[in-house]
């Protein structure tokens, strides 16, 4: 089973477009975890969140930055966290890698061969040769940054680019079209922020079949309903709506896991209503 097959199987089984982002910040942890070594508290917190939310998700998205910040023990913690994810639910590593060929090969090998994750986010700025080592893993998912959710995304992504057909397109559209041309193995996807649903709609028209990873719901203020409607394909699928803090820290007390489950279920149901299910 390749990444897209695994994603669609999980999405159908759970009736869900929801992806829970695993961005553990110990300063936001509940009192019950205070006083423990930070690595222990992160593992316990993430395991509880995964157990509570797994009936409502189509994927998990751990962000490597929160584990790398722990120093040498961080990747061992990462392994323990992803080890709690049910094997039928895809793991999309938010790493935003982007480097020249030999570096890219090692980044890809670490994520796919060492940690056995299902997909990764990649920065396309260096061009095809920096992406090719990831694409070589034909059964894995490669999500390329296209129109990101942050406020300054337009500094570069909105710049107009003269294309071969004589049109002037914003850079994010050029990226979307280029990624589609790289999708020979059916393992490419795009990252498009929920904070820009109109741009997402234009990207979906250009790339009707690519899966779209959609961050920016919750604390970043993205429009959930508009993003779902703009991001799904003609079958109401292939949108992966990522929510992190709004689920992880829905409750600051010791009832955090139950409240995360309630919030995950509610968001899943809102997404389904937006796509008419």
Question: Short description, anyone?
Answer:
With 277 residues, this protein is α/β, with parallel strands linked by helices.
Largest sheet: 8 strands, parallel
Strand arrangement in the largest pleated sheet: 2-1-10-9-8-5-4-3
Distance from first to last alpha carbon:
26 Å
Structural class by helix and strand composition: alpha/beta
Instruction: List the uncertain runs.
Output: none
Class, according to the CATH hierarchy?
Alpha Beta
Q: What is the CA-atom radius of gyration, in angstroms? A: 18 Å
Percentage of residues in helical conformation: 40-55%
Secondary-structure element order, N to C:
HEHEHHEHEHEHEEHEHEHEHH
What is the count of DSSP helices, taking H or I runs of 4+ residues? 12
Query: CATH superfamily membership, which one?
Result: Aldolase class I
The pLDDT mean sits at 96
Assembly state (oligomeric): single chain
Please give the number of β-strands.
10
What count of domains describes the coordinates? 1
- The proportion of residues in beta strands is 15-25%
CATH topology tier name: TIM Barrel
Question: In one word, what is the shape?
Answer: globular
CATH hierarchy: architecture: Alpha-Beta Barrel
Describe the 3D structure.
The chain is of the alpha/beta class. It has one domain (3-274): Aldolase class I (TIM Barrel). The protein has 12 helices and 10 strands. It has helices at 3-14, 38-53, 64-68, 74-82, 101-114, 128-135, 154-157, 171-181, 197-206, 224-231, 245-248, 256-274, and strands spanning 18-22, 59-62, 92-97, 119-122, 141-147, 160-162, 168-170, 188-192, 212-214, 239-243. The strands form 2 sheets. The protein has an 8-stranded parallel beta sheet with strand order 2-1-10-9-8-5-4-3. The chain has a two-stranded antiparallel sheet with strand order 6-7. The two termini are 26 Å apart. The model has no long low-confidence stretch (mean pLDDT 96).
């Amino acid at each position: 089973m390749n990444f897209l097959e695994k994603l669609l199987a999980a999405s159908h089984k759970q009736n869900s477009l929801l992806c829970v982002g695993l961005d553990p910040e110990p300063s936001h942890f509940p009192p019950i975890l205070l006083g423990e070594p930070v690595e222990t508290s992160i593992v316990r917190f993430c395991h509880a969140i995964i157990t509570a939310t797994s009936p409502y998700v189509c994927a998990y998205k751990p962000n490597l930055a929160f584990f790398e910040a722990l120093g040498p023990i961080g990747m061992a913690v990462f392994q323990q966290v992803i080890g709690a994810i049910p094997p039928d639910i895809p793991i999309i590593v938010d790493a935003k890698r982007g480097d020249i060929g030999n570096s890219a090969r090692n980044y890809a090998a670490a994520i796919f061969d060492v940690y056995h994750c299902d997909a990764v986010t990649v920065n396309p700025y260096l061009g095809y040769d920096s992406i090719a080592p990831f694409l070589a893993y034909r059964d894995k998912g490669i999500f390329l940054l296209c129109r990101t959710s942050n406020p300054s995304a337009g500094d570069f992504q909105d710049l107009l680019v003269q294309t071969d057909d004589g049109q002037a397109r914003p850079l994010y559209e050029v990226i979307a079209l280029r990624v589609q041309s790289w999708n020979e193995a059916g393992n490419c996807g795009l990252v498009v922020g929920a904070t820009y649903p109109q741009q997402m709609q234009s990207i979906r028209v250009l790339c009707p079949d690519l899966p779209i990873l959609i961050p920016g719901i919750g604390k970043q203020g993205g429009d959930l309903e508009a993003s779902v409607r703009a991001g799904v394909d003609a079958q109401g699928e292939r949108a992966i709506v990522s929510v992190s803090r709004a689920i992880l820290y829905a409750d600051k007390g010791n009832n955090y896991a139950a409240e995360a489950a309630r919030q995950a279920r509610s968001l899943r149901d809102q997404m389904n209503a937006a796509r008419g299910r």
